[in-house]
Amino acid sequence: MPSFKSILLAGAVAMLPFGAAAHAAPKKTAKEAPVAEVIVAEPAQVEEEPATDFDSEAYAAEQKAKMQKEMDEAVALIEKMFDTSSLPPIEPARLALAQKTMGALIPAGSIEKMIDNLYGKMFKTIMGEFGGQSDLMLSIQTGVESEQVAKLDEATKSKIADMFDPHRKEREDQITKVIKPLISEGLGDMEPPMREGLAKAYARKFTAAQLTDLNGFLATPTGALYANEWMALQADPEVMVAVIKAVPPLVTKFIDRAPELEKDFKDLPKEKQLSDFSDKELSSLAKLMKVDVKLLKEQRDMWKTDSVEATDAVAVEAADDYAVDAAADAADAAAYAADAAADAVADPAYDRSNWSAADLKRVEDLELAYENASLAAQQAAEEAAENARKKLPD
Known about the structure:
This protein is mostly helical. Among the domains are: 4-25 and 88-235, no CATH class; 305-391, no CATH class. It has 18 helices and 2 strands. A two-stranded antiparallel ribbon has the order 1-2.
């Protein structure tokens, strides 16, 4: 489990601007090529990709497009999880009341105010960890164990950090100066859709009369103060400390109840595999999937193998022999691959590009079945060995 310091370090890296990240990494000029990927074609032969000019703009555009695709997929998943298409329409008058409520509860800058409670404390702590004076960073930079670094006083740590980066304080201030406006802009963009979403939720949760009462309260001095502070208070130091302190007992509960939870999960029926399906079940499955039942039967028959049961029995009788058997199987597989490679060189008939489509499919299907059966056999052997250990005397 990562330490709290490592989490902070990771957070700092993620929040660094592009310029700072580039400063930490080796710079590439327009004439420098990225490190060529090494491809092992045959033993004793190493081939490198030809060097090409590194296009930083094209690379950035490619990464941006990749990230956008991942974000779109995440949004689509969330929309599927929280499908709202079946919800009834909201009365316009009731929605207008809820929008007025949200206008009071989420005024411009309220989300930023909440983040400021974290930004001034948490972010500076992150920057301190990443800035070079933390035990972790000094240990990474010097190679000295962090326990030894921890014995030093803060003044000494500061002097050591300054030896590596005399301008670290200026750098931290500049990073903060650059990031803060960007965060403010991003949070400002979040407020309108958040207000709209909450307005719809409030309109469905509260009646028009209740929303009118809420708006009346928010118009009072006390209500206005509440509306201005309620969101920021979610990140108040006392709230954050209380929440963090509540986490360890929760984790401890799971650890203490692990044996009970494990037993409950073991009692659950196992998931069926295609090899468990009867002909009748395969016919039903084929109709649902609109495929030929013969295809499913071929797949099922490839999965069926007696080797799983045989390996299971051997492992129960001699669990310690499993590693030897697995090593022997691996050696046999390696020898088979080597022989096949040699045959392919000596005889062009083994070149798969010369095979018919039917022959190629039959070989690949059998190879896939062999791989699946091998994995299943290994898993069964591990389970059998574990069962044997429970029965064997300590």
